[in-house]
Amino acid sequence: MAALIEDYALIGDLQTAALVGRDGSIDWLCLPRFDSPACFAALLGDEDNGHWRLAPAGAGACTRRAYLEDSLVLESVWETAGGAVKVTDFMPQRDRAPDLVRIVEGLSGRVEMLGVLRLRFDYGAIVPWVRRTDGHRVAVAGPDSAWLRSEPEVPTRGEGPSTRSEFTVAAGEKIAFVLTWHPSHEPRPALIDPHEALDHSLADWRAWAGRCRYRGPYREAVVRSLLTLKALTYAPTGGIVAAPTTSLPEEIGGVRNWDYRYCWLRDSTLTLNSLLALGYEDEARAWRDWLVRAVAGDPADLQTMYGLAGERRLPETELPWLAGYERSYPVRTGNGAVSQLQLDVYGEVVDSLHAAREGGLRAKPHAWNIQRCFLDFLREHWREPDAGLWEVRGPRRHFVHSKVMAWVAADRAVRTLEADPSLDGDLDGWRALREEIHREVCEKGYDAGRGAFVQSYGSTELDAATLLIPRTGFLPPDDPRVLATVDAVRRELTDDGFVRRYGDGLAHTAVDGISGTEGTFLACSFWLADALQLTGRPKEARALFERLLAVRNDVGLLAEEYAPAAGRQLGNFPQAFSHIGLVGTALLLDGAGPAH
Ligand SMILES: OC[C@H]1O[C@H](O[C@H]2O[C@H](CO)[C@@H](O)[C@H](O)[C@H]2O)[C@H](O)[C@@H](O)[C@@H]1O
């Protein structure tokens, strides 16, 4: 059975990522890209679906573990009766083939170690042929091959469905294992030196983290979140995935299990804003260029999400051979929300390009053309109902947040033109559009009787996304309607102080058309902290923020959701949305401008 979600740590090479449990088992890894089929899928089934455990024989969870400084190099230490041993796990940034490196180092005494490797290609479905060649164990099936070697060589043997290595490590000894994925039709991949690769990886991550401009009191948490966001970036294209996993459930045993290994425009723009606010212009530029390529074409064809290279077809299917995380079934790949109309996305993209421009990123003519096309599209379509930022699968509605973000698109376009009249655009028309949307949202989106902005026109349901209203500039933080909305969300949408997206229980299904319910949504909880700060309650904002920091796992990672009663993280992990929220709130508490 897989571990608790919060028991996993993340390692990655900016093209894919793996989850390492406290027991030394790597239970999730997709190769060669984030969205490729997993070769270790025990996370969503059992050990037979693929995993790689390397730990002292008979041991359980490690005694302690941590990332080595500001890096994605993970060190896990076991103290056993015979002595102490450290396993250092990382994925070097790759030249060609992806490598997973595990260096075992004796710290004291002598420790009996056991390695169990079960490679299962295609999400745990395919048992490969394993042979020995050239000092390697090579597993091959279909298009995939994986090569395992160790330095110095330790004996391995096949036992049933796995490759086992039993060896002893004494104080001062180091044994490095390297697992390399390669297309099966190609000759053996080039070998890396695992120790040199470790030095390079550390130096790269250190240098990257050192560029962070944040100097406030939450530096450790902010830097870890930024490292996590960076790890979710697919370096060859600049695309950013929402999370490296699929189908970690929003409810244990439930059906709310989605594939997040794609680039949502919403999540990516928010990631970009965080990176840009803290000095990472290169990533911002790479993503902006990715965006320009991905969305090229008719704005009516804009998708809410794309593949890592901008692919458009992401058909949602189920993997019936996987039992699901703690029996949360189905396990899905692809994502049906890809074809939804979500009007907020236009606002998020225009806002982000506006922030990039203001942040000093040299504008690209294409980027401005995209914004103009988006405005043309919104002028025609902003009055339509949509699926909203929560991607509901029930009937379309007039979501207040979607309309507010349509206003944001018009507002940022107007402001860009005002600042640079040499640009081409319909200043008067966009001003009128901005005015019209504002009037309608204030008329139809605010329920005076209820004393709050509601989720959609005509509904009495609340929605945590309305907490974003003061951050967008749609209304000032001291507007009585904003104050009332923040209070209503706090009163009615919280669970032990953490915020739900909307409704609860049956109300949940009524809103989104999916059975079951879910935990509190961490990004929304950060938004409440932001709203408290903006509306003059800084002590309460800080207190909530610090409670949220305490939800992070031992290595600083957050999933999408949190179940306060069970004290468990839920949903895909680690999730960009949650870490974006953390960075944004840290900046806001520090007096900096909005990062989301
Ligand atoms: O709630 C149903 C929807 O849940 C997922 O969407 C959520 O994740 C996205 C990626 O982080 C985020 O952009 C969105 O706001 C969230 O609601 C799922 O991907 C959808 O398919 C599903 O309909």
Automatic annotation (TrEMBL):
What species is this protein from?
Answer: Streptomyces luteosporeus
Q: Name one GO molecular function term.
A: hydrolase activity
Q: Which UniProt keywords apply?
A: Hydrolase
Q: The GH15-like domain covers which part of the protein?
A: 216-585
Q: Name one Pfam family in it.
A: Glyco_hydro_15
Top-level taxon: Bacteria
Instruction: Tell me if Hydrolase is a UniProt keyword of this record.
Output: yes
Query: Trehalase-like N-terminal domain spans which residues?
Result: 2-138
Name the UniProt record assigns to this protein: Glycoside hydrolase family 15 protein
